[in-house]
Each structure stands twice: as structure tokens, then as C-alpha cells.
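pls design
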């Protein structure tokens, strides 16, 4: 298989930019992720590919809960903040204010939509773990045009 063709072709798969947050005890984790998809209607399941060495993965694996934040197309700056390691200071994660959700996962106040989830299964093979989660809470503030990788300055995947 031609590695350049594979990379170019796999980058054609549509991906959004999301921020996943979790907490375990006093530890918080947050990261921008691109590989998320709805996997089932009943029950409502989503799956996310998350690096196992990340702090957000550690938190969700320990606590069994996470929140997925859907970013508006004009929120590239928010996505950029979560490419960096997690820093919690004065009620913010990476400079974004948050509150605990119903699952106690951190909910970013400036995200226009989010789902809170309970972890149901973690599949670890490859450089990302596939985390299957059941949606237990959802909130959406108005019409949203989600931020996508294709509309951003970043290339990821392939």
C-alpha cells in the first residue's frame, strides 16, 4: 500500500473537532479530539478514539465518565487551547470556565453543545483507544454549525 495515498485518502473522512473532558477525584483531563461518532440510537452510544497516555484518558478510565463538547465553527481558538496539556486554575481548564455536570465531568461553559457520558467499554489496540460511551445527558444552545477538521488550519489523521 502506498503510504502517501493512504494518508491522503484517510484524511478525506469527515471529522469534527471536539473537546473531551473528564475528572477523577481532584484530577481533571481535557483534550481536543477528532475521532468521534454516534454508534447507536438505542441506547444512545458514541465512540471516541483517545490517546491512552493522555490525562483525559486516565481520568475517564478511572471515573467512568466524560463529557464531549461540540464546538461552533468560530471556536478554533477554544480547540487550540486543548491541544496543550491540561491546566486547571481558578475554575478554568486551559483558560475555559467550567462547572461539574450531572456526571461530575467538567462542562465547559463556552461550548455551545455537549453530551455527558458513562463509559461502557474501552478497546485498546493501536495508538488510540476506542472508548464506547452511553449518553446520559445532552445540552444544545441554539443552532450550531460544528467546527470540522476540513474547515480548520490543522491536518490530523491518515
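designed seq:
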Amino acid at each position: 500500500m502506498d503510504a502517501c495515498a493512504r494518508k491522503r485518502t484517510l484524511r478525506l473522512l469527515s471529522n469534527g473537532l471536539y473537546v473531551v473532558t473528564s475528572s477523577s477525584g481532584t484530577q481533571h483531563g481535557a483534550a481536543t479530539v477528532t475521532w468521534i461518532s454516534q454508534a447507536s440510537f438505542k441506547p444512545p452510544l458514541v465512540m471516541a478514539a483517545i490517546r491512552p497516555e493522555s490525562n483525559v484518558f486516565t481520568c475517564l478510565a478511572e471515573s467512568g465518565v466524560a463529557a464531549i463538547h461540540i464546538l461552533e465553527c468560530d471556536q478554533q481558538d477554544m480547540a487550540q487551547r486543548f491541544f496543550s496539556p491540561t491546566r486547571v486554575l481558578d475554575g478554568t481548564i486551559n483558560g475555559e470556565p467550567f462547572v461539574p455536570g450531572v456526571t461530575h465531568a467538567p462542562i465547559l461553559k463556552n461550548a455551545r453543545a455537549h453530551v455527558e457520558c458513562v463509559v461502557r467499554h474501552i478497546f485498546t489496540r493501536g495508538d488510540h483507544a476506542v472508548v464506547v460511551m452511553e449518553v446520559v445527558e445532552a445540552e444544545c444552545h441554539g443552532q450550531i454549525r460544528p467546527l470540522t477538521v476540513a474547515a480548520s488550519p490543522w491536518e490530523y489523521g491518515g
